[in-house]
């Protein structure tokens, strides 16, 4: 039997100490991404109180990150192939560290927006490079499978633990929500170069579709910005129309660039797959409803009920049940009923969650809202994984990476649209009113955005119920 020169394989076929160290670094990076998003969601009311941000700007602080992530996700994967996985991973980690730190020193809303956008863009380069390094540092077989399972579990754990960490840090000072990731990133950056191996030569090769990435990012940014402008429909209507028109022009420009490029971010022919389109629409709607709901819940619990950041963290922790259910129950349900049916149930559970939470009032106890949190955790467990699976249904194996990149881009873009939608509707309904009753009513109306997104997502999934054969093939996979 031939042996590998890679330091990841020992005589017993187990991970070497260096391989385990490399896995810790790679898992640390994906953990960093998970806690970063979760902690910020908890700290939003404290940030608003300190910097005096409007609801629109507050939601933009979150959506700036996901738009940066979505806009550069496909480019990030391409960059790892061209410039080398290790080089891109470590460079992106350094940028993440720097701009997360800058966010902690922000004294104005625009400073936070810039910091979050660049941090999201850095994550878009770091995440695909980190996942690709798993294949470089671990040989195919049980060792790599184990590494991937640990990597995926760490991503889920990062979000759940980030809710608790966010509550603790926001109780001290919201700026620590930005400084804590700096400390972890600095540690990873110090040990990463020694532990991570990469078989790439380090020579730049291939072409880089920067115009396509710029057009895609600009189109998504303008679309999200246009939605937030709808909170005051009677003001500067012409400018709002111009924003949406500019977004449409950039979407068209992106398609033309990809069609003419010899090394496009997206091969347009892949969009002929009905399963891929269904997966991307479903992912966009699922993420939009999920992030929109979290934004509403955080404001409701802290600004209307007066809960502390720590209490809010613990209240949202029930959503983390997906980390337990997803690897145990979801595969069995998919094997029996197929991906599309399982995703459809996930959307229906999310719909039930948002419907129950619409009864929120000033006298609500945690017992009253716990069923909503539990239902959303179950919905996430049933929806997220299978959505990424059906994205590759009928797609050639050598384009699975592109299909996965598209569905992840849809998730991030959907999150930005959901946040912009609930912010715009909430601000429009509130107007100039400042009473707690008016604020509560504005949140109830804003909750219609997650409700509508979940209902539309269920309809999209229902159109795929007839594709039983494809669903079964992916279930087996």
Summary keywords:
18 helices, MFS_dom, 477 residues, mainly alpha, transport, disordered N terminus, cell membrane, 0% strand, single chain
List the helices and strands and how they pair.
Elements: H1 17-51, H2 55-83, H3 85-104, H4 109-137, H5 142-172, H6 176-195, H7 210-228, H8 237-260, H9 274-304, H10 309-316, H11 322-328, H12 330-337, H13 339-357, H14 366-390, H15 400-430, H16 436-446, H17 448-462, H18 468-476
Helix pairs in contact: 1-4, 1-5, 1-6, 1-9, 2-3, 2-4, 2-7, 2-15, 3-4, 3-6, 4-5, 5-10, 7-8, 7-15, 9-14, 9-15, 9-17, 11-14, 12-13, 13-14, 13-17, 15-16, 15-17
**What summary fits the major beta sheet?**
none
Order of helices and strands: HHHHHHHHHHHHHHHHHH
Shape type? globular
> Rg to the nearest angstrom?
22 Å
Helix and strand content put the structural class at: mainly alpha
Count of β-strands: 0
Give the helix proportion (percent range). Answer: over 70%
Portion of residues in beta strands equals under 5%
First-last Cα distance: 29 Å
Q: Averaged pLDDT, please?
A: 82
